[in-house]
TrEMBL record:
<dbReference type="InterPro" id="IPR054608">
    <property type="entry name" value="SYY-like_C"/>
</dbReference>
<dbReference type="InterPro" id="IPR024107">
    <property type="entry name" value="Tyr-tRNA-ligase_bac_1"/>
</dbReference>
<keyword id="KW-0067">ATP-binding</keyword>
<feature type="binding site">
    <location>
        <position position="239"/>
    </location>
    <ligand>
        <name>ATP</name>
    </ligand>
</feature>
<feature type="binding site">
    <location>
        <position position="39"/>
    </location>
    <ligand>
        <name>L-tyrosine</name>
    </ligand>
</feature>
<dbReference type="GO" id="GO:0004831">
    <property type="term" value="F:tyrosine-tRNA ligase activity"/>
</dbReference>
<dbReference type="InterPro" id="IPR036986">
    <property type="entry name" value="S4_RNA-bd_sf"/>
</dbReference>
<comment type="function">
    <text>Catalyzes the attachment of tyrosine to tRNA(Tyr) in a two-step reaction: tyrosine is first activated by ATP to form Tyr-AMP and then transferred to the acceptor end of tRNA(Tyr).</text>
</comment>
<feature type="domain" description="Tyrosine--tRNA ligase SYY-like C-terminal">
    <location>
        <begin position="333"/>
        <end position="386"/>
    </location>
</feature>
<keyword id="KW-0694">RNA-binding</keyword>
<dbReference type="GO" id="GO:0005524">
    <property type="term" value="F:ATP binding"/>
</dbReference>
<keyword id="KW-0547">Nucleotide-binding</keyword>
<comment type="similarity">
    <text>Belongs to the class-I aminoacyl-tRNA synthetase family. TyrS type 1 subfamily.</text>
</comment>
<keyword id="KW-0963">Cytoplasm</keyword>
<protein>
    <recommendedName>
        <fullName>Tyrosine--tRNA ligase</fullName>
        <ecNumber>6.1.1.1</ecNumber>
    </recommendedName>
</protein>
<keyword id="KW-0030">Aminoacyl-tRNA synthetase</keyword>
<keyword id="KW-0436">Ligase</keyword>
Amino acid sequence: MTTYESDLLRLLEERGHIHQVTDAAGLDKLACDEVVTAYVGFDPTAASLHVGNLASIMLLKRVQQAGHRPIVILGGGTAKVGDPSGKDETRTMLTDEKLASNIASIQGSFEKILRFDDSETGALLINNDDWLSKLGYIELLRDVGPHFTINRMLTFDSVKLRLDREQPLTFLEFNYMIMQAYDYVKLSRDHGVRLQLGGSDQWGNIVNGIELGRRMDGAELYGVTAPLITRADGSKMGKSVDGAIWLNEDMLPAYDFWQYWRNTDDRDVGRFLRLFTDLPLEEIARLEALEGAEINEAKTVLANEVTAMVRGRDAADKAATTAAETFSGGAGEDLPSLEIEDGMTVMAALTALGFTKSNGEAKRKIAEGAVKLDGETVADIQALATAGRLSLGKKRHAILTP
């Protein structure tokens, strides 16, 4: 582990947030000498952020905790183009109205986790569409274009991987890295931003912005990337067998969000406690040292802390109580519920709840004996749904009401 002098890099390092730093010594000194303004960009491509985005929000939270200023950049402009990084095909184009709706919907997630005020370290939320949509095409070509070479752009992973796979890369997407680099220059000029943070897949884009700032303004800018967060089984963070783990309550009930964290693999508990909670490192060391059935205590703490941060302490307490009641045979008031219609089958109820993606999948789960209604295994694929507790496996539960 690298020894840093600044609270900022020391905090990021000890919590497991650092993958690469462009100039560690320079940034370390800067963070010791002055308040650093740092930003992370989020393209509003959905009505909610997901757990995968939470790692990036935590970077900004650590910036603020270390006495520096975080800026959230909502990519209302860049989202109109689409980041090709890690994608096999062109992103679906979103209308201005849909982007505006998504931005309004995801703002609350940042407001729960970061402190927004007028102080020197108060967070800011800015939409890059405010300047990108006002740029003239010729202006952009003349001011920014000369600082990029096609030769170098072709070496970036976001481009190279698509070309190697012989997947189409549109000229629109090819411009994404130019737009994102210009964002850094604009933020440096207008808000004194000196640091951009992001996931490891953003390294090329961040370096582009640093170099553009140096060439256009002689600015000394920095970048930090966080490691790609994968689970012990190799799967990508933020996904489950049932789909994305959304941060917004209207996209995923608090109980299901809580349960996602409670089901963390034993091998991931300590790492996730460091990344996604503010618990003292000494307490985390104690929790991750638990063995056997006792490790469930650490998983419950993880679920409680992350849910409280993202959804509020009341939501976390209700989810924990519901889990305890559910697994002791009770109903659990915070479970998702479904009002059943006359003639609705258990198969249809599973799909309506989102437990299965289709009636075909629901049929297979019933045939496997994985579905129970009030503790009794449902054997008939045409069985009618009745009021009670519907369960799929050991982890998915809901209340059916008449």
